[in-house]
Amino acid sequence: MNFGNAWLMQVVKVSVVSSMLFLTACSAHPAKQVNDMLDRQTSSEYKAYEIKIGTCLNSTHREIDSVEDVYFNSLSDEQKLKVLSILSRMAMDKCYSYEQAKYYEYAIINNDEEAFEIIKSLAYKPVETQENKALLDSIDMNEVRRLSDSNLFSTPFDALYIRDTMKIGL
Predict the structure, then answer these.
(1) What burial class does residue 137 get, using C-beta atoms within 10 Å of its C-beta: 0-12 exposed, 13-18 middle, 19+ buried?
(2) Spatial distance between the Cα atoms of 30 and 12, rounded to a whole number of angstroms
(3) Is 57:14 a contact under the CB 8 Å cutoff?
(4) 115: which of 68, 77, 86, 169 lies 20 to 30 Å off by Cα?
(5) Cα dist from 109 to 12, 112, 115, 139, whole Å
(6) DSSP label at 26?
(7) Where are the alpha helices (DSSP H) in 59-76?
(8) 136 contacts 82 by C-beta, under 8 angstroms
(9) What gap in Å lies between CA 128 and CA 151, rounded to an integer?
(10) 23, 98, 101, 89: which is closest to 57 by C-alpha?
């Protein structure tokens, strides 16, 4: 169940930009301060980033019924959940990477401190525990990258649907 909570937190973090209504507890800033910063962002780069994140989030409803992959199917349920979490994040990152890079460029060129704070508050921050490190060490990241490049996982998908449909960890 650790997978569901970590994945959900990342979705909530990303949806802050698209909805401007929510803020995760992981942010280093009080919700009001970040919401005020979001409201003041008017650059075309920010607007494009915001729109693209919304589009990417909407595409996370893509359902995958099964995974026919020797490596993936050889993993334990705990490893499969972690791999799905990583693949989900990688697919989202790929989906809006161009717009994100343009927004980073805007922040750097304009030395926009508020943009930097938004970028930092939305950055992926994996939970650093001994258990999580051991689990990550047991996963072949070359295989994860290969899966990420496959048609199945190269675009956003519903990771929780896969978990439920394949009865992973249930």
Answers:
(1) exposed
(2) 16
(3) yes
(4) 86
(5) 28, 8, 11, 38
(6) T
(7) 70-74
(8) yes
(9) 30
(10) 89
Mean pLDDT by 10 residues, the chain (170 residues): 39 39 38 59 85 90 91 96 93 92 91 85 75 90 97 94 89
- Euclidean distance between CA atoms 85 and 160, whole angstroms: 9
**At residue 94, what is the residue type?**
K
The residue to which tokens 């930092």 are assigned: 120
**What is the rounded distance in angstroms from the CA atom of residue 57 to the CA atom of residue 11?**
8
- Helix ranges, the chain (H): 2-19, 31-40, 44-58, 70-74, 77-109, 113-122, 130-137, 141-149, 159-165
Tokens encoding 167: 């009865």
Take residue 94 and report the two structure tokens written for it.
Answer: 């790929």
Provide the token pair at 33.
């301060």
pLDDT at residue 164, rounded to an integer: 93
pLDDT at 4: 42
Q: Quick one: which of 92, 91, 69, 79 has its CA closest to 3?
A: 79
Count of positions (residues) in the chain? 170
For position 31, what pLDDT does the model report?
Answer: 55
